[in-house]
Fold this protein.
Amino acid sequence: MAKLLNDIERNAELQSLKEWRYDAPTKAIRRDFKFANFVEAFGFMGQVALLAEKAGHHPDWSNVYNRVSVSLSTHDAGGLTEKDISLARAIDGLL
């Protein structure tokens, strides 16, 4: 099982993930994305799906028209791990 990040580790990682924020109640990091239209938003989701499948780590997410909300948490570890940070970095790399 992946090791949970402690508060210090989490805060240090979030310094380099400027658009991501920690959501304490869900023990996850979240980011909202806005695109020009639905097609761009859906294309982005397709790219994220490929990254997630390759990593074996899948986001909780939602899509409404041109907006995509992504939440990352390692459920079997009960919170935030390096798997979430790595996937967030990979997602940011798509932009």
